[in-house]
Amino acid sequence: MTGIPERNFVTVLTAAVSHRDPLPTRDEVFGMAIKLATDLKYTGSLENAVDQAMISINTRMGAGISLVGRESPHDSGWVQKQQINWVYSEAYERLLGQEGWSGAVVQSLSDVTHRILGHLQDPSDPDSWDRRGLVIGHVQSGKTANYLGLVCRAADAGYKFIIIVAGIHNNLRSQTQGRADTGFVGRSSDPTGRREAIGVGTLVADFPHPVTLTNTVSDFSVRNANVTGGEINDFKKPVVVVIKKNVSTLKALYNWLHDFNAKNGQIGDVPMLLIDDEADNASVDTSREDVNPTKTNYHLRRILSLFSKSCYVGYTATPFANIFINPDAYDEDVRADLFPRDFIYALDAPSSYFGPDKVFLQDASSERILRPRRLDDATGFASVGIVDIDKFAEGDHLPESLMQALDTFFIAKAIRLISGQANKHCSMLVNVSARVLVQQSVKEEVSLYRKRSQDAVLANYAIGNGINCNYHMQRLKAAYEREYATAKTTWVDVLKHLPDAIQSVRLFVINSKSDEVLDYAAYDRKGEAVTAIAIGGLSISRGLTLEGLTVSYMHRTTSTYDTLMQMGRWFGYRPGYEDLCRVYLPPQSIEWYTYIAEKTEDLRDQIRRMRRQGKTPKEFGLYMETHPDRLLITAQNKMRHAENVELERNLSGSLVETHLLPMDSEVPAANEALIAEYWHKRFGGELHVTRKGWVCSGVPINTAVEFLAKYDPGPEAMHIELKSAIDFLRELSQQFSRVEVLLIDGPAGDGNPSEHRLGSQERTVVTDNGAWKMPKDRVASRGDERLGLSPNQLQLASDYAVRDHEEDPMRNPEPSDKHFREARNQPLVMIHSLLVKDKESGETQRVPAVGISFPYLETAPTVKVKVNKVWLKQMRGPSDDNADEEDDYDE
């Protein structure tokens, strides 16, 4: 009798121990694994199975937070008042358990989707209604699982017609259709095979299979829909369509609904739910007719307007575009715009989520994961990190950085084999251009490199002395020593598994013109795992999940918030191999990702604060209209044809720093003299010693404004930035008469208070348009904002951190600068003296810098700021986005 597969064994083991209270120790789980292995004839790695079970049972997920509109009457308790048979929902939750989800996370998902359903309308309500909402998730964190859970609940509650709009690319639509088939329909929709029961359809006797008008191969068409032979209200079971966000498809769906289902221009007694996956991508900036944002938006609203009972729920991890929709926009033909006026629900990610904070914000894990590289390491690549399209298309060799990434992937695969993960998918991402021609050239070069590495390993792996004289063997050993020498395995063990590791690798080009299909589900159905190197551009930049993603190499850049974060396919879940993951990025992209990760968390924090204040989605949208990050999100488009743009700005809760520093020695010298002058007068306040310098408390706000107005930040972009901060500080004089000023000393404590001279903090910088540029655009060290706080304020900051951790288990229970800022609750000016060292030339210079931290305000003033293209370039940096990249769009 054949033993149970590892995946099934882990599921049984997790189920056996996950409901114990308290949670079992690893030794207890191992003991249970030994017993089950005997009973189930499991012959795989117990260590690996126990590792996966421990991750599952220790994973927790918070309930999330929501803002709810008050404009339209709504009973959020309608779900509890109904007698609902949760057949689809319970089957889906059973399926998640079988797929290895812990009982705690399945229950959390169940609770969250139950809450979101409450924000929808009761489908039995006889009146006409339309509700608009937005669910904010995390990139690669399980948004699809959440909205499928909501779809199941909505179907159980009585929603009859469900539309899932799944991105702008065919492969993502097909992937989503497959997941809907497995988690909701319960039957394969693949027209080339048998319509057999799958997923939830195998778990319930006489499962009430919903009707699907689309399949894994074909998007919606009137011809296929008419094969069903009836109107949507004729079916006793819910009807679902999974469509691409494409103007032609949306138009076809509208026409079919209007022509075959509407009576007098309306569809009456058919409660409809429209799930808009990657909802922010409806506003993608493109001139292509089929993905035109204005027409996409128009046709989505047309479809909604056909139904007298409709709910629209957008799902996204990058909600900036959605929040900036005008909440009052209305059109007689297509009703209100898609602003989430009725609710915004911010999901919490499970504690095991491998997200932006681990990759970019936590110093220890960032150092392990990130590999900042420039593309100046091979002919045919420009030094700024952008592929030279023409030269590379001619077949130039791979850059050293990509060869290092490939070596790392081969070693990582070998270690995963050693760890008992032979039956787990293992992937590498290569994204250097959106152009199909370049992607194909990259594949050919990568294929050749893989073949040469494989030949070298097969010829030399068994003879230790062959390594020293073989180029590829030397590279592979160097990769092991560079990346994984501290792993729980030896080079000798890795060497034994390298032949299988490299031979198992398959290459895929993923774009709209490729006929190669990277279908992980197909491998799953055959009980196999794939080792894949996925090479692509736009098609792997949004939505598409790369299973087992271990090494990522991306040198495409963009300065758009949503596009950049969505490119981060490396976010997700990495059970048992998180320590092997590596991400190769240009330094500029790392800075942008770090900034966006911080700002996305700021947005979530603001939702929490506004929830506590009882604010609505509309009030949140109005707040974001004047948030400083709106400049970075919208100014690019606004400034295409203008030299200057004036916008309103609200800096509540923000930290503004002079992270671009003057290289002219006269400016720093004048600023040091200015600092000494005001320090000598204690800035008009009282001077106290801190553990890292000095603090002036009780400083008149007008004195701080006067000092900052005299301070010369150097680069033009910093003049604009500092001026807006000074204007905002001046406006705050209506609420605050005093501020605090921190004089932050160097780590050696060598400042001289008698000469009013600060000790230096060393920083490695790069040059940027004639200025020194601080790493990650950051001046202050993390934790600096705690300086000068009283014991009561420090306790308050700790209380705030615990509060946030209880709301979201992903949050660190230790206080951060945000909590210190909240506890201080007054403006703070920070003054630094930096000893900057140019990363390339080694040149050093002493340069002061300042920062202004603003408190969180329930009501805050706004100031006008005029930005120009110089500001935009230095604050945003270059981008490779251009019209030529549309080669990768679907036709």
Question: What would a concise description of this structure say?
Answer:
With 891 residues, this protein is of the alpha/beta class.
Provide structural commentary.
The radius of gyration is 29 Å and the shape is globular. Residues 283-288, 378-395 and 878-891 have low confidence and may be disordered. 41% of the residues lie in helices and 17% in strands. α26 packs antiparallel against α27 (716-731). The protein has 30 helices and 27 strands. Strands 18, 19, 20, 21, 22, 23, 24, 25 and 26 form a nine-stranded mixed beta sheet that branches. Strands 1-10-2-7-6-3-5-4 form an eight-stranded mixed beta sheet. The two termini are 50 Å apart. The protein is an alpha/beta fold.
Give keywords:
891 residues; alpha/beta; eight-stranded mixed β-sheet; 27 strands
Helix-strand blueprint:
Elements: H1 6-17, H2 26-40, H3 46-58, E1 65-68, H4 78-81, H5 87-98, H6 103-119, E2 129-136, H7 143-157, E3 161-166, H8 170-185, E4 211-212, H9 222-226, E5 239-243, H10 247-261, E6 272-277, H11 293-306, E7 309-316, H12 320-323, E8 330-331, E9 335-336, E10 343-346, H13 356-361, H14 363-369, E11 370-372, H15 389-393, H16 400-418, E12 426-431, H17 436-460, H18 471-483, H19 491-503, E13 505-510, H20 520-525, E14 531-536, E15 549-554, H21 561-566, E16 582-585, H22 587-612, H23 617-625, H24 629-638, E17 644-649, E18 655-657, E19 660-662, H25 666-680, E20 686-690, E21 693-700, H26 701-710, H27 716-731, E22 738-744, E23 761-768, E24 771-773, H28 791-807, H29 817-824, E25 828-838, E26 844-853, E27 863-868, H30 869-876
Parallel strand pairs: 2-7, 2-10, 3-5, 3-6, 4-5, 6-7, 11-16, 12-14, 12-15, 13-14, 15-16, 22-25, 23-25
Antiparallel strand pairs: 1-10, 8-9, 17-27, 18-26, 19-24, 20-21, 21-22, 23-24, 25-26
Helix pairs in contact: 1-2, 1-3, 2-3, 5-6, 5-7, 6-7, 7-8, 10-11, 16-18, 16-19, 17-19, 26-27, 27-30, 28-29
